[in-house]
Amino acid sequence: MPFAGKLGDVQRDRAVDYLPAGADSTQVARIQDTLPGGESTDLVVVYHRAGGLTAEDRATAGEQIAAVTREHGLPAVPGGVPSDDGTTLMFPVSSTAPGQDQEARTAFVTDVRERAEGGGGLSAEVGGPGALASDAQEVYTSLDGPLLYTTVGVVALLLILIYRSPFLWLVPLVVAGLADVLSMAVAYGLNQGFGTTVSGQSSAVMTILVFGAGTDYALLLVARYREELGRLERPVDAMAAALRGCGPAVLASSGTVAVGMLCLLAADLNSSRGMGPIAAVGVLCALLAMTTLLPALLVILGRRVFWPLTPAYGAVSRQQRSVFSAMGGSAGRRPVAVLVTGGVLLGALSLGVFGLPGDLKQEDSFTSTPESISAMGTLAAAFPERSTQPVTVITPTGQADRTLARARATEGVAGAEKGRSAGGWTELTVTAQAPPESPGERAVIDTLRDTLDGSHVGGPSAQQADLEETNARDLRIVVPLVVLAVLLILVALLRSLVAPLLLVVAVVAVWGAALGIAGLVLEPLLGMEGTDPGLPLLSFVFLVALGVDYGIFLMHRMREESLAGAGPTDAALTALRTTGGVIASAGLVLAATFAVLVSMPMTALAEMGFVIAVGVLLDTFLVRTYLVTAASVALGRRMWWPGPLGRAPAENLPHAPELVTSR
């Protein structure tokens, strides 16, 4: 508990914590930290009156800005910059006093906002990079409570509906809560020991994974435990048999997810690379809690924890006709037709990828509209002919004058000024003629980088460009790495080559279909006007790693049945009948936990939550239920090639007594 409580103290959401490790804009941010005062907090105070500013408005604005500069010891900002239509007055305000201290930066922004007051038709808004960072930090800080409460509430409701017991649902929920505390403590330890980046995004995802994946493991274990209680008298014996039966699948699935997450360490983007070990910690802590504390509590509580549906010793499990029996039967009768239809459907849905909105801009990064975003909109409308967001150039001090002259002579540059110097570096502030994040401003940034030798070009727009380029690079590197890692684990677990390939192809198809559905929904229905550059990579890693989870549950039971002597078709249909309900329940819980992110006020989190939730549902109810079962029936014993199951008749197989017994 003491270490878990410190995680918030090391959580960082500054630009440098998300930027690519080796990008130009990252170097600018790091060098700025070494300049006098450290990283500057740059604000723009915007005064606006729709009918045109009056002389009184200008006087009020001047007095308020003068009060800000006096209070914080800043240079005077006389006059401000008026718009051509006379409706808007812009005052740039910058301070290095807060440095890297996030609380001090937020306090500075808050004080400026309190002093800049409108009224009587005059609006006063504080925007700029510093205000945007402060608003983002406030949103991430406010996520912890609502995210946890909403996740717990959703999981509790689903567990009550699944278990239909007034007591049983509470046990895995409490264990998941303790696993979440453990994961926060371990994440804090990683930060202290290895400098692992902890951001608001990675913390939110870790909580979701602990409750989602942990509840999945609990569902599988409890279902197998209930089954064994009908066969064995003592709960401790039933739990031992349940752990022998489903333990390997749970271990393999959690290991697959953890390894998939750790593949993000190969990413160049700081936020993605930091999320890898943090997410892996969440999964492994959930595994530890669900295979130690949960079994102990269930054994202590005994059969009565299942009341009113208490499993009786010696009761024969009724082979009733469930929906999964019906679905398996339809897949078993026409496996090829089911495979073709499912493949065509997933392919058609994947075409929606072309409908994804363009790259996410800063003004679209919140699902609501904080003051910093509103100020950006006012500036964009009032100053369409110029940029209201500076480009920062860091150049060696010895060539600062030459770099300044070349920057001013660059096509598309409205002006450039020399700023702070220290440690052999000098800061230049360059203003482009084109609006922020427009093709014209992007061209200016590219030209400056090409022509200013030995200098680094950064600032908000340059950071966004680097994010997009690095995410494209990371996608090319991490995706094959995840596929290879997951494939090797599946080959080792299933002792086959065909079955692992089938599962990997299936989850990749699900990823494409989920992104396609996002392309049909995000902008037209949810009003999201941009796609986070990291969405393809993060959604791929999570959907492949988590999707293979359910494939492992199903294929492990299928292999178990085959080792016990069942034929390929019977093994596939029995596995679906016995695990279908658990997989469906687990899929619903996992999808619901990620769907919680859709309600969060950050567009990147909402988009990731939507894509992963949709992908998990597709994987659970289409791919696992129909396509994998149909493929198993169609391929028969070839599914297990080149292992022993793939080449020996059932009666000649080396039976595994412990598997037969656990059945």
- Alpha-carbon distance between the two ends: 40 Å
What fraction of residues sit in β-strands? 5-15%
- Taken in chain order, the helices and strands follow as HHHEHEEHEHHHHHHHHEHEEHEHHHHHH
What spatial form do the alpha-carbon principal axes imply?
elongated
Structure class: alpha+beta
Neighbour order of strands in the largest sheet: 2-3-1-4
3D architecture notes:
This protein is of the alpha+beta class. The protein is elongated, with a radius of gyration of 29 Å. Helix 7 runs antiparallel to helix 10 and helix 11 packs across helix 20. A hairpin with a 2-residue loop joins strand 6 and strand 7. The protein is 63% helix and 8% strand. The strands form two sheets. A four-stranded antiparallel sheet has the order 2-3-1-4. A four-stranded antiparallel sheet has the order 6-7-5-8, with helices on both faces. The chain starts with 6 loop residues before the first helix and ends with a helix.
Q: Could you provide a short overview of the structure?
A:
By secondary structure, this protein is of the alpha+beta class.
Architecture blueprint of SSEs:
Layout: H1 7-10, H2 15-18, H3 24-34, E1 41-48, H4 55-72, E2 81-82, E3 88-95, H5 102-115, E4 123-127, H6 129-163, H7 170-194, H8 200-229, H9 235-262, H10 270-301, H11 323-333, H12 335-350, H13 371-382, E5 391-396, H14 400-408, E6 413-422, E7 425-432, H15 439-451, E8 456-458, H16 460-494, H17 498-521, H18 535-563, H19 568-595, H20 603-635, H21 657-662
Antiparallel strand pairs: 1-3, 1-4, 2-3, 5-7, 5-8, 6-7
Helix pairs in contact: 5-6, 6-8, 6-19, 7-8, 7-10, 8-9, 8-10, 8-19, 9-10, 9-16, 9-18, 11-19, 11-20, 12-17, 12-20, 16-17, 16-18, 17-18, 17-20, 18-19, 18-20, 19-20
